[in-house]
Design brief:
- The structure is a single chain.
- This protein is of the alpha+beta class.
- It has 3 domains: 229 residues, BirA Bifunctional Protein, domain 2; 128 residues, YbaK protein; 94 residues, Rossmann fold (3-Layer(aba) Sandwich), CATH 3.40.50.
- It is built from 15 helices and 31 strands.
- Helix 2 runs antiparallel to helix 6.
- The radius of gyration is 29 Å and the shape is globular.
């Protein structure tokens, strides 16, 4: 491709709306342009990279036996209502009405559509297993689109769905897709981890893993063991339970519950400073709605509630913190002074609180707390579990060694759905004995457009993008210093044609621009190899530069064309 005829609108200044490095570089290098908040146009270079990513995905899906199809973006709202996900997505669901006032949604994913299709077409065990996938645009009305392609309202996703007769078959498909994802992300040259994960709005009945590209800009936290292979995201991560957690050695901790006057001391920070205690001496009581019913969750003062663990423990669809008015009506006091003693709300106690020798908690009375409160004596510990987020000082549940925390960008997710959707949409088959059974499902997603950002986030420097060879829009960038020099142009055209003839993608910068502009654009765009044709062509010499390492080589064209080709192909 000749650069003079290609649409590559590069920018010198960093756009003010771009926070993340990848977003800045995608805009500056002319790969994308914003159409509206969270909605982008992919320009020619960006689209070339996306197609390369998609081709790698298709090749690996082919190996698993998955069939590609294409489903509609518009979904009848009745399908989402049949699974209950219309309410679960809430305001994130983009809805519209046709001229007949029938309601539709722009698909956030396609579990209901594919399940409905299989329900109508599959009725016998002989038609199973099946594994179907598509690469298509998805829509979610994010409250705050940010970081460019990483959190948008319109994005490209690969979503696959498997259908089996039993759990053993699902397990085989699940791990085949798991392995395929590893191959895909390795081929994309990503530094990534696969971790145990939560299923979110898609839901699962079995297992689920996330694939995370390591990056400081990532919105997810990855917890890994420094010794064994344990890894999970922080929503799923567990820790080694310590049998007893003694409270700090203060003279005030005796057997009798005592009331403390704590005027306006609502926060953990204020309490620890005023009472001269540590935050781990406090019992924090938080009031939640769990599918509309009020509950209280108790964690230590230095911990945070893990709402995802609570959802699983309670087997509910949704959990959200109650507002101040609701808390006051249920407990008689505002948040900050709520405690478990004589609390008329179901109480769920984190393991650490259960094991505390004593603690300080809210007194359910304005401006008062209670000290010397003993779990099991002064409040019920009937409902206990792991209800908190892991922390830096926790230990691995498998080997007891320390944790390491990294930030990551979610790039893929695999789920064992079981019968979550087939049960609700009545997708069944007749087994070998003629008995009706529910189809066992799995689903497997990759954020295709997210990968564009993740790759750049891991591969850049102060000059611009550094594309891995697997996904670069072109393999070679030829720079002609002086377009008016016939020898330079003839050499460039000859090299361009020979490289193109053997299947090497070349971008030839034949623009009538100053050399400095061409070099800056080349570094910004980040194509792996650059060949500069300038004054030394009179000596039959061109300059080869490797974008990743910065190393440069002077090469004699006539004698070493094969060497250039071999160098580029490696």
């Amino acid at each position: 491709m000749r650069q003079s005829s290609m649409f590559i609108p590069t920018l010198r200044e960093v756009p003010s709306e771009a926070e993340a490095k990848n977003h800045q570089l995608l805009l500056r290098s002319g790969f994308i342009r914003q159409t509206a908040a969270g909605i982008y146009t992919y320009l020619p270079l960006g689209w070339r990279v996306l197609r390369k990513i998609e081709n790698i995905i298709r090749e690996e899906m082919e190996i698993t036996g998955a069939n590609e199809l294409h489903m509609p973006a518009m979904q009848p709202i009745e399908l989402l209502k049949s699974s209950g996900r219309d309410a679960l997505y809430g305001d994130e669901l983009m809805k519209l009405n046709d001229r007949h006032e029938r309601e539709f949604a722009l698909g956030p994913t396609h579990e209901e559509v594919i399940t409905s299709l299989i329900k109508s077409e599959v009725n016998s065990y002989r038609q199973l297993p099946l594994n179907l996938y598509q690469i298509q645009t998805k829509f979610r009305d994010e409250r705050r689109p940010r970081f460019g392609l990483l959190r948008g309202r319109e994005f490209i996703m690969k979503d696959a769905y498997s259908f089996n007769t039993d759990w053993e078959g699902l397990d085989q498909t699940y791990w085949a897709m798991f392995d395929a994802y590893h191959r895909i992300f390795k081929r994309l040259d990503l530094n990534y981890r696969s971790v145990e994960a939560e299923s979110g709005a898609i839901g699962d009945e079995g297992g689920t893993h996330e694939f995370m590209a390591l990056a400081d800009i990532g919105e997810d936290t990855i917890v890994t063991c420094t010794s064994c292979d344990y890894s999970a995201n922080d929503e799923k991560a567990e820790y080694k339970i310590i049998d007893e957690i003694p409270t700090s050695d203060h003279d005030s901790f005796v057997n009798t519950v005592e009331k403390l006057y704590t005027p306006n001391l609502k926060s953990i920070e204020n309490l620890t400073q005023d009472l001269n205690i540590n935050s781990e001496d406090l019992i924090k009581t938080l009031i939640y709605f769990a599918d509309g019913k009020l509950i209280a969750v108790l964690v230590r003062g230095d911990r945070e509630v893990n709402e995802h663990k609570m959802i699983h423990f309670l087997d509910v669809e949704q959990i959200e913190l109650a507002d101040t008015k609701t808390v006051e009506k249920a407990t008689g006091v505002i948040p900050g002074f709520v405690g478990p003693v004589k609390l008329d709300v179901p109480i769920y106690v984190d393991y650490e609180v259960e094991r505390m020798t004593s603690g300080i908690c809210g007194a359910n009375e304005l401006n008062y707390h209670l000290k010397n409160v003993i779990p099991g004596r002064d409040f019920s510990i009937e409902n206990t579990g792991d209800f908190r987020m892991v922390s830096q000082n926790d230990q691995c549940p498998n080997c007891g060694e320390n944790f390491k925390f990294n930030k990551g960008i979610e790039i893929g997710h695999v789920f064992k759905l079981g019968t979550r959707y087939s049960k609700k949409l009545d997708a069944t088959f007749l087994d070998s004995k003629g008995k009706e059974q529910e189809i066992i499902m799995g689903c497997y997603g990759i954020g295709v457009s997210r990968l564009l950002s993740a790759i750049i986030e891991q591969n850049n420097d102060h000059q611009g993008i550094i594309w891995p060879k697997s996904t670069a829009p072109f393999r070679v960038h030829i720079i002609v210093i002086n377009k008016k020099d016939i020898t330079q142009m003839n050499t460039a055209n000859d090299l361009y044609q020979k490289l193109s003839d053997i299947g090497i993608e070349v971008l030839l910068d034949d623009r009538d621009e100053r050399p400095g502009v061409k070099f800056k654009d080349a570094d910004l765009i980040g194509i792996p190899y650059r060949i500069t044709i300038g004054k030394k062509i009179k000596e039959n010499i061109v300059e080869m530069k490797v974008r990743q390492s910065g190393e440069q080589h002077l090469i004699e064209v006539d004698e070493s064309l094969n060497n250039i080709i071999e160098f580029i192909k490696n």
